[in-house]
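FW: tagging you since you asked about this chain on Friday. Here's the raw sequence from the shared folder, copied in full. Didn't touch anything.
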Amino acid sequence: MHIPPIPSLTAADPQLAGLVEAEAQRQHDKLRMIASENYVSAAVLEASGTVLTNKYSEGYAGRRYYEGQQLIDQIETLAIERAKALFGVDHANVQPYSGSPANLAVYLAFLSPGDTVLGMSLPMGGHLTHGWSVSATGKWFNSVRYGVSRETGRIDLDEVRDVARRERPKVIFCGGTAVPRTIDFAGFAEIAREVGAVLVADIAHIAGLVAGGAHPSPVGHADVVTTTTHKTLRGPRGAMILSTAEHASAIDKAVFPGLQGGPHNHTTAGIAVALREASGPDFRAYAAQIVANAKALAAALVERGYDLVSGGTDNHLILADLTGQGIGGKPAAQALDRAGIELNYNTVPYDPRKPFDPSGIRLGTAALTTRGLTEEQMPQVAAWMDEAIGAAVKDDESTIERIAGEVRDLLAGYPMPGYATA
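HL: got it, structure written out here
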């Protein structure tokens, strides 16, 4: 049963309510290892589903274009102050609807169409909005890119420096969507200073690890930090932009009125709750456990012969090349999903296959850590993955079904926020 219960929705729209209940059970019954997903607390769920969704609030606290903001201003200010305290920054904007609009606001704040931006190549682990060709950021700006070493699978800062010196970008992005190793924010900052660029750290994937002290912080190195508020931070689907005081006005003007109208106040409330949760000692232990689980799972996969990009992980994320297993990432991910193990197919660096049918899979440990799993269970998770992938190669659906049942049996002992067994 979904928690909080949804009796009004059930009465008004039983078809939709049934889908919601089914999704809650699906999330309960599967090992959810999509690296960008997690479970939010019941408190975040409640805050995100309140009457705050009724209110329009264009502008900022004390400077709105609608009346009736006395309480909304307090809620947004609460989220801002908690973000500033948690990450140790001068300024926080909590209004971006998601990570991509947050990054677009950076372009609007610091660049004009045609200006040069340096970001990590998407197939190497970067993000669409770091200047990839199919994104508006690659179409409207002069996008130049860096990658990773063929030998190590890691970012080569010498390459980044060479490209930056040659191209003289106005903005440099560091961070990405498939970067399993610690990001050298200080090294990127040195390069940005040398060429006179604004350094933007996109920590969407690792924000919770940064907040919990399990990954170095970009604060003090990057001029601007963008992040989603879900993933490892365990908040609702939203985003924030953190910056020095120098850039506060440019960022705020870029978000509103530059890109957006009224913020989603119910999401802002959920962000405020998540930030409060992330400020406590339990969250620090959680962040450390995410990394411990990822390292244990990576070691177990390597022991079973899997080729991991960069050889392992320093954070929550693992990127595996399945060429040696004789299967593409897409059919493997689909078989694993049927086996109760949810992750995504993903391009690996220098992948010879097409993006929609790549060689790799990407997985993360944030959600299963929320459920309470520890290093003790990681060898079993690796064994299930290996067995399911082998079964997919052999078209052995009965083995895949058996694994799904074993996964459900394991997870029955680990409560899920947002769901209760009847």
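FW: Residues 283-411 form a domain with the Aspartate Aminotransferase, domain 1 fold (CATH 3.90.1150.10).
HL: agreed, and The CA atoms of residues 212 and 283 lie 6 Å apart.
FW: great, closing this out.
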